[in-house]
From TrEMBL:
Residues forming coiled coils: 320-350
Name this protein carries in UniProt: DUF885 family protein
Stored PANTHER family: DUF885 DOMAIN-CONTAINING PROTEIN (PTHR33361:SF2), GLR0591 PROTEIN (PTHR33361)
Matches recorded under Pfam families: DUF885
InterPro entries: DUF885
Source organism, top-level taxon: Bacteria
Keyword match Transmembrane helix: yes
Bilayer-crossing regions: 12-30
Keywords, sorted A to Z: Coiled coil, Membrane, Transmembrane, Transmembrane helix
Length: 584
């Protein structure tokens, strides 16, 4: 799992804000610069590429400056891009679909004014991505109230604390700006609450069970009290600033405590009260397809978030074919292989990652040196956060990287090893550092293509089985078993949200594959209800990388390292665009 802001990239805290803020920012940008970018003057290829780069940089600057969180997580030194300060702390939720569509069309007009044929390959990729992304945003405007900022897997209520705790202090100004961000927390939560009330009025509010999960997550945050990690991490971060006197540090620590007491905790209390009031107004206890436009929205969402053009039926067929391929001849040795992989010589995460880093050297291209810190999810939040997640660094400071590990969900050595491969090498961290080393257009960092990034990390995870102290046969069996399990989640996701499976339908589906514990399946059902389409980003994304690899080999290329370099060089994008450029 990847944490990116505001999506910038983990998205996660405000999925609805990140999807539309670029449009409102662009209205201002276009009004002020229209003459420059809509000119019809013919120019050389060099001039056209310079104009295009200038266009995307201005668009990037307006977008990242929309919120302080987005700005700080994307750029360590925003002044280098001419950015003085952000417009808001967390961003603003807008729901005027007409205005959103108009803004997208205005940006498209500016984009279409460039001569595509004169652009170099790097800029052509960016052009294609912007074209696709703007089309997606226009379409998304019809489904704004189907978005769920309180989703139970990576909603605002679980992501904001992590994002605040990892807000880096490089100097005194960062501390003061951070405290200003905290001061706007309650107002931001009021925007979320207002949006949820509008959803309730339209019959699109959370089901009672999902509302209860949100309440549980909020209460878990408040239950930490004075032991909340937003106190301790603030003290740790501020303690590293040499420019501050002990008196100044003490004053800032008191200010942080005051903002926690007056803003952050009351924001969660407000949210709890609002969810309690709205609970019971949800009209649907099942998948998205039971909402008026739910089935149509789900298919659109999958195509956009995964980066595919396949219909749901085609994705179901693709998944079943891969399951059949993985299951063939695998069952007998699964238990034997699991026992063989049960013990690692060293369970220390840092050493496992170092082993992975060395192990991938023959099949993956080298990346620049970078530092990595392993942190652990606070005990109080372990039940409410993912098994692990990688915090994407600022694009102008990729030297420092952080991976969080949720120890309660590391059930065995195999899970720990493969999870660290997913988040670290050759997964999210590796992919991020490699792509940033290619000096991509900054606008690329704020375009979210979850199918690529999670698909790559899943592909990396599958590769890691062959780096464990196992025979090739044992590694293959365990890898295929993992692939099948993830495929079942993907099929259940499509079954619940597109086909309309009930809980009993889901129980019967899993029973056909030998999973007969009703309580386990009930948890899976709730997990999928809480975050529609999430598992398809991982599984279908992974399968699409396998298809690209088959295409690569079929064309006569045998080098795995060159294949990995090719797809990583294109960077996060819909798979149609990756396929267009990766073999050039």
């Amino acid at each position: 799992m990847l944490i990116q802001f505001w999506k910038r990239r983990k998205k996660q805290c405000v999925s609805i804000v990140c999807s539309i803020s670029i449009l409102f920012s662009a209205i201002f940008f276009l009004n002020g610069c229209e003459a420059t970018f809509l000119e019809e003057k013919k120019s050389s290829k060099d001039v056209e590429n310079e104009r295009f780069t200038s266009f995307t940089e201005k668009l990037f600057c307006k977008e990242v400056a929309a919120s302080q969180i987005s700005l700080h997580y994307t750029l360590k030194e925003p002044e280098a891009y001419g950015i003085d300060k952000a417009d808001t702390a967390y961003g603003t939720i807008q729901t005027d679909s007409t205005q959103i569509k108009t803004a997208a069309e205005n940006i498209q007009q500016a984009l279409y004014a460039f001569s595509y044929e004169k652009l170099n390959v790097k800029n052509k990729i960016t052009y294609d991505l912007l074209k696709q992304y703007l089309r997606s945003l226009r379409e998304e405007a019809d489904y704004l109230y189907y978005e769920e900022p309180l989703n139970t897997v990576n909603g605002v209520q679980t992501q904001i604390p992590i994002v605040l705790s990892e807000y880096q202090f490089y100097d005194r100004t960062d501390v003061e700006v951070y405290l200003d961000v905290l001061s706007e927390t309650r107002d931001y939560f009021q925007q979320i609450i207002a949006f949820e009330r509008e959803k309730a009025d339209k019959g699109l509010f959370l089901s009672d069970e999902m509302a209860d999960q949100v309440l549980e997550q909020c209460n878990a945050f408040l239950a930490m009290g004075n032991g909340n990690y937003l106190y301790s991490t603030f003290v740790s971060r501020i303690g590293e600033l040499q420019e501050l006197s002990e008196k100044e540090k003490s004053d800032y620590i008191q200010q942080n405590a005051r903002q926690m007491e007056e803003q952050v905790c009351p924001a969660y209390e407000d949210l709890i009260q609002a969810v309690k009031e709205l609970k019971g107004k949800g009209t649907n206890e099942k998948g998205l397809c039971y909402f008026p436009e739910g089935r149509k929205y789900y298919e659109w969402y999958i195509q956009q978030s995964v980066g595919v053009t396949d219909t749901i039926q085609e994705l179901e067929q693709l998944t079943r074919r891969q399951i059949s391929e993985d299951i063939t001849g695998m069952e007998e040795a699964v238990n034997e292989a699991k026992q063989a992989a049960a013990i690692l010589e060293d369970r220390k995460a840092e050493r496992i990652l170092e082993k992975l880093k060395k192990g991938i050297g023959t099949a993956f291209p080298e990346i620049p040196k970078t530092s990595l810190q392993i942190k652990y999810v606070p005990e109080e939040m372990q039940e409410h956060l993912s098994p692990a997640f990688y915090m994407i660094p600022a694009i102008d400071y990729t030297e420092e990287n952080v991976i969080y590990v949720n120890q309660i969900q590391m059930r065995d050595d195999l899970a720990l090893f493969t999870t660290l491969a997913h988040e670290g090498y050759p997964g999210h961290l590796y992919q991020t550092i490699f792509f940033e080393s290619t000096n991509p257009d900054p606008i690329r960092s704020i375009l979210n293509f979850g199918g690529y990034v999670e698909g790559w990390a899943t592909y990396a995870e599958m590769c890691s089985y062959y780096l464990m102290p196992l025979s090739k046969t044992q590694a293959a069996i365990l890898q295929k078993n993992s692939s099948v399990i993830l495929a079942l989640y993907a099929l259940a996701d499509m079954g619940i949200h597109y086909e309309g499976w009930s809980r009993m339908d889901t129980v019967e589906f899993y029973a056909r594959y030998g999973i007969k514990d009703a309580e386990t399946v009930d948890k899976i059902y709730n997990l999928i209800l809480g975050s529609p389409g999430n598992y398809l980003k991982y599984y279908i994304g992974y399968i699409k990388f396998l298809e690209l690899k088959k295409e690569w080999i079929k064309s006569g290329n045998q080098s795995q390292k060159e294949f990995h370099k090719a797809v990583l060089s294109v960077g996060p994008a819909p798979f149609e665009i990756v396929g267009k450029y990766f073999s050039l």
